Each structure stands twice: as C-alpha cells, then as structure tokens.
# Entry
Amino acid sequence: MQQTTREPRLVEHLERYLGRLAAGWERTVDGTSLPFTVGRFDDPPFADCVGFSTIGLSDHILKSSGSAKTIRQELFALFRDPTRSLPFTEVLQVLASGLIKSGSALLRGQVIGPRGPFWKDSALEAFYVSSPSYLPDEFAVCDLGDGHRCVFAWLIPITRAEAEYVASSGWRSFEALLERENPDLLAADRGSCV
# Structure
C-alpha cells in the first residue's frame, strides 16, 4: 500500500479504534489504480464485526454543499457477520471515486441510493451518512499533521422505506426514530425501522 506522509497517522488512528488493518485494496476489480485505498479492519470493538474505511480520500480537499467550507474526509462502515460475502470494498471505492470527481463531501443526513438490494433477499439498499456515534468521540476527527485534520463519515446501510422517510421527514427526525427504535445498525440482515 503506497502511503502519503499523512497516511501513517491515519492508519494508526483507524487501528486504535477499528482494530488491525488486515487488508487493503488500491485497485478496482478491473485493475484500475485508485488514488486512495480501502482498508479492512478485522477487530472493531463489537462482536462478530468487520470494519472498512477509505485511506487517503482525505488527501483530496472536498467542498461542503451547505457552505463554502472545505473538508478532508474519510468514509467508513461497520458490519456484523463478516463471513457474508458483501461487496462493500467495491461500494466504498465507487463512492469515494465519485466524491473526488464531484469535489463534494458527504454531509450528515445525506442518503445515497436506494439502488436495489445489497444482496439477494436484503432489505438494505441505501446508505445514510452519519457521525460515528457507535465509536468514542475521539474517533470522529483525525489529526493528520501539518495543520490538517480529517473527519469520518459513517455509512449506515438503510432500507428503501428508511431512505424515503429521510426524504419526507428530514434527517433529524430519522435520527430521533433510530434513537427510539434502537436497531442494531451493524447487522447486515437488519429490517426496517419504518
């Protein structure tokens, strides 16, 4: 894995909270080289869980769609049942590549999708962008050195009904619903809260 001067700090930060970096992908399935890596972390602090994160997306300065603010950002996701064959490495590659191309960061409350079930018989078919509330507060921002910091956007798999709820009722209402229902947001086979 090729690293910029900031990436050792980033990997150290990720390993502190998500466990050992077990693998990294710098190329797409068809062999195209990427300007970042997607890492798999095998020891997150949750039972039967696996973590994925971009490493190096934060080398690209992205703009906020809600202000003139610029953002250095990494994307991550956490899932239970790591034995299931889920395409989340490829999904993070596609999403991060799209952010670099558009120059826009993902913001809390955004929904990506729905784009059909993640796998056969899955109710999950979209992502909700949130702050990393399942992890300690210190995880949310990483000091990259040289006066640079990056923030982490948590990609939570959601159902079509939940995506529609966010669109109609707003992200604050959706997060309040999640607090009331308290679903296991790490479960790959989770049903809808709506």
In short: The chain has one domain: 7-181.
